[in-house]
Specification:
Layout lengths: L17 E2 L9 E2 L2 E4 L2 E5 H13 L2 H7 L4 H14 L5 E4 L7 E4 L1 H25 L5
Antiparallel strand pairs: 1-2, 3-4, 5-6
Protein name: Putative transcriptional regulator, ModE family
GO molecular function: DNA-binding transcription factor activity
InterPro entries: LysR_HTH_N, Molybdate_resp_trans_reg, WH-like_DNA-bd_sf, WH_DNA-bd_sf
Length: about 130
């Protein structure tokens, strides 16, 4: 009997890797993340989770879209919220209008700043590979 569930990605970190422009036969690669008091505070995957929460207004839908378990999504959110000066994700318990999840203004800033750093990192790698000559 086949197991049901999500299919694992071949390399779950493949999307985190930043490539430089190709220089001859070579490409410089790297990963970037922001460390906090507990280790990783923000990285590509956590930013993607915040963006999906913004898109869907739901942790479970965001996790599913990223092929991530709901439990793992909650762990990442809890970690980010503990390490941030202000919460990045806020949840609302169900009721008359139903529950929901939203990212805060602080999360919006974090997303914007992370992508700026990410783009600058990519430019840096592209410049550095030009100095590689063998």
């Amino acid at each position: 009997m086949k197991k049901k569930g999500r299919k694992p990605l071949k390399d779950p970190h493949q999307f985190c890797i930043v490539d430089s422009e190709k220089h001859g036969e070579y490409t410089l690669k790297g990963k970037i993340w922001i460390e906090g008091s507990e280790g990783t505070f923000l990285g590509y995957g956590r930013i993607a989770l915040l963006e999906k929460i913004k898109q869907y207004g739901s942790i479970s839908k965001a996790a599913k879209a990223l092929n991530m378990s709901y439990r793992q999504a909650w762990r990442l959110i809890a970690s980010m919220n503990r390490q941030a000066k202000k919460p990045l994700v806020e949840t609302q318990v169900g009721g008359k209008g139903g529950g929901g999840t939203r990212i805060t203004e602080t999360a919006e800033k974090a997303i914007e700043q992370f992508w700026k750093i990410h783009e600058n990192f990519k430019k840096f790698l592209s410049e550095q590979i030009k100095n590689f000559e063998i």
